[in-house]
Amino acid sequence: MHKAGKRPLSITVRVVLFVALTISICLFFVQQLLLSSVEHHFIEQDADELAVILHAVEHTLTTAQDGQQQPAQTLAKAVSGHHGVYYQVMDSQNRLLYRNADVDLSLLAANTPASADYNAKTIHHWQLDGKAYRGVFSRLTTADQHYKVIAAIDISFHTHFLAQLQRSLGLILLGSALLTLLAAWLAVHQGLNPLRGLSEQMRDIQTSKLDIRLSPGEVPTELRHMVQSFNLMLDRLEQGFTKLSHFSADIAHELRTPLTNMITQTQVSLSRARSADEYQNLLFSNLEELERLNKMISDMLWLAKSDNGLLTLQKQPLELKQEVAAIFNFFEAWAAESQVGLSYHGANIIVQADRTLLRHALTNLLSNALRYTPPGETITVSTTAAADSTTITVENPGQPIPPQHLPFLFDRFYRADASRQRQIEGSGLGLAITKAIVDAHQGQLSVESDARSTRFSIRLKLA
């Protein structure tokens, strides 16, 4: 057993997943940008405050030395009005001169390089006793004294604020994402309503309603091309179904006629005793009808192979003049009996084609011309070459074919004059077979008819 393939995701799920991924990425970067901006603002704010503290300490140390005062006596008054700020001053021998709290910042300076500038780029982050600090380490020189100054700010408030902000932003962005996804789902669901409407209309189309067409003006612009393509498909299906229906009726009629003839003749012959000659004539008549049926069935099988692409062409270079001459030899007796002349005009052109099939196509056209050419007239076969193709034309004088019949001449069992259907030999498949042969050679078959003559033209690529 073959495993069933995975069912593809619906359009709605695909769009919602894509929107979800896009929104998640965008909101993540928005959140990171906001948090980074707030944190950078705190760093700059702390850097400015630390710079003020260090300048105040430096000013105090300079003033104390000029006044011959002890630094420790004046440092206590150096900074005021700042909360959560710690600083301590040491001399060049690392002896503590002053600190404003019980927080020992000496360890912070052990692995921290001294900074000459006090800004956001030179500020450092420290962890001490479970608390986070942001500070700077500086060396000050006043006259002949050297000092080490460490200033730090407790940033627990900042980290707590950032944590709360991150949680709040997460909830807000999550809610925004869910609302956006809901809106996207509703938009996609609403946007697919025209497709659901088209599906309902398509479901109503049956073989008895192939004339129904979808209206491109009633659908969004994005679906118009699909509707137009669907209508074109319906046109082709309707034409094919109509031809198939006509073909079925025609073939039933074509097969019934010879069978009816044989049954009728046989019943008449069996109605009373007949002589051996009469029975022999009956058998000859039935044989003619059976041969006609056999040829019709063979032609239908050949056309079926052609329709399904089962023909294998044996292409080879062919001289058209030589091929036409061979066909003329075949029809010479019939033409003489019908008092019709055969003429060829054109250069000796070489084409790539299947010899058997090409002769079959030309034979069908020539036999058709012989049936409708009045006595005393001439059928002309001509060849003309273009840059990349050649055209073979079979022209015969006679009654013109009405213009309304020309588009249907290559249909199976089609005859322009229905009253002559039984008087004219053939199965009604000759022109259909000719067109199939030309199509197999990737050529073109056309017909023109006027008061002067009827012309069938085969256009093939040159070798």
TrEMBL record:
Full protein name: Sensor protein
Keywords of the record: ATP-binding, Cell inner membrane, Cell membrane, Kinase, Membrane, Nucleotide-binding, Phosphoprotein, Transferase, Transmembrane, Transmembrane helix, Two-component regulatory system
Job of this protein: Member of a two-component regulatory system.
EC number(s) reported in the record: 2.7.13.3
Annotated HAMP domain residues: 189-242
Primary site of residence: membrane
Occurrences of domain Histidine kinase (ranges): 250-463
Root EC class: transferase
Spans traversing the lipid bilayer: 12-30
Organism: Alishewanella jeotgali KCTC 22429
InterPro entries, per the entry: CusS-like_sensor, CztS_silS_copS, HAMP_dom, HATPase_C_sf, HATPase_dom, His_kinase_dom, HisK_dim/P_dom, HisK_dim/P_sf
Cellular component annotations (GO), alphabetically ordered: plasma membrane
Compartment(s) of residence: Cell inner membrane
Chemical reaction(s) catalysed: ATP + protein L-histidine = ADP + protein N-phospho-L-histidine
Stored CDD domains: HAMP (cd06225), HisKA (cd00082)
PROSITE patterns found in the cross-reference section: HAMP (PS50885), HIS_KIN (PS50109)
SMART domains for this protein: HAMP, HATPase_c, HisKA
Membrane topology: Multi-pass membrane protein
Any one Pfam family match given in the protein's UniProt record, by short name: HisKA
Domain of life: Bacteria
GO terms of molecular function: ATP binding; phosphorelay sensor kinase activity
